[in-house]
Amino acid sequence: MQLSTKLIHGGISEDPLTGAVSVPIYQTSTYRQKKLGQPGDFEYSRSGNPTRLALEELIAELEGGVKGFAFSSGLAAIHATLSLFQPGDHLILGDDVYGGTFRLLEKVFKPFGLSYTMVDSRELSQLENALTNHTKALYLETPSNPLLKIIDLEKSVVWAREHELITIVDNTFATPYLQQPLILGADIVLHSGTKYLGGHSDLVAGFATTNNESLAEKIAFYQNSIGGVLGPQDSWLLQRGIKTLAVRMEAHQRNAGILASYLAAHSGVAKVYYPGLADHPGHEVAARQMRGFGGMVAFELVDESRTAEFVESLKVITLAESLGGVESLIEVPAVMTHASIPQEKREASGIKEGLIRLSVGIEDITDLQTDLEQAFAAALREETAE
Ligand SMILES: *Cc1c(COP(=O)(O)O)cnc(C)c1O
């Protein structure tokens, strides 16, 4: 079955009981036991719920995993995954991971004895330098957030295996439609389901999936023990959203490619970050390991001091955190999504104060381009008026 068919028919896509072509929302916390001490397949909805199970089987199938786990947020999925480690363990982390991942490690796990080193994970020499006797895992995000850095997954996995580390990949930006890290050798894939998988900016959710039975058993244990599970309503919404992932991703990346070229040619723009541009340093690796370049674009204005005026002047494109919805969203990471990372750390990883991140939606491209054009005009007009 091709991936775009799996999006619709993968996992458990119907109700086995009634034949309903949409899995019902099993809005229940508990299940009748016919005999004392012999529960059926479901016992209590934190441990398992049929609507959530249908979604979990789907994400596992899409990523090529043996088991999938759905959580109440991306961070809950990351929390359960980081719980695999013990005090004293050390992780190596890409240097522009999602701000919340950094905060979780720094403020929650570090006080309990987990340590980490952030490096430019594109450089094997930096990975080597960060390695200690206690290093247990390599944690990567590609394309990264917000700089769209591309990490060669196959090369990283080979290195991690040599050092007996597990590789964890946050695949939120690419989705399994564009990239399947487990198939490239990674051990655990994480997602914020809030973004492209949900696709409509109407829910918060997360996923973990693995192709390793022993890791699956442990993640299942932490999912149930910590308890950040996804409810049946949101599980259903996600399954509904995933059905259109292929058409949405194609539309996102078509628009993103056009806007990236438009921005790159604009005299008001100093720099554009988009892996689909031939001069992006990760272009060739992205072309090899991804089926497309995705819907995220970042850029800097020539005059950084006009950043606020520019983003505030947009009318169709919404100034908001988050990404991956059908509507275009724009934000300034240093002030918004990445504000929890100290400025020195942000700057060291290349995130300038004026960097703008654009999640390109699936609106008509003419409306998006016209909106950017009028915002450039407005931001520059105010400058000459002062
Ligand atoms: C949003 C995001 C997360 C966190 O997910 P939530 O659903 O907001 O908890 C993790 N990783 C990446 C790359 C994200 O964009």
TrEMBL record:
The keyword Electron transport does not apply. GO terms for molecular function: cystathionine gamma-synthase activity. Its cofactor is pyridoxal 5'-phosphate. It comes from the Bacteria. The keyword Lyase does not apply. Keywords: Pyridoxal phosphate, Transferase. InterPro entries: Cys/Met-Metab_PyrdxlP-dep_enz, Cys_met_metab_PP, PyrdxlP-dep_Trfase, PyrdxlP-dep_Trfase_major, PyrdxlP-dep_Trfase_small. It holds the Pfam family Cys_Met_Meta_PP. Its EC number is 2.5.1.48. It is an enzyme of class 2 (transferase). Belongs to the trans-sulfuration enzymes family. This is Cystathionine gamma-synthase. It comes from Candidatus Enterococcus murrayae.
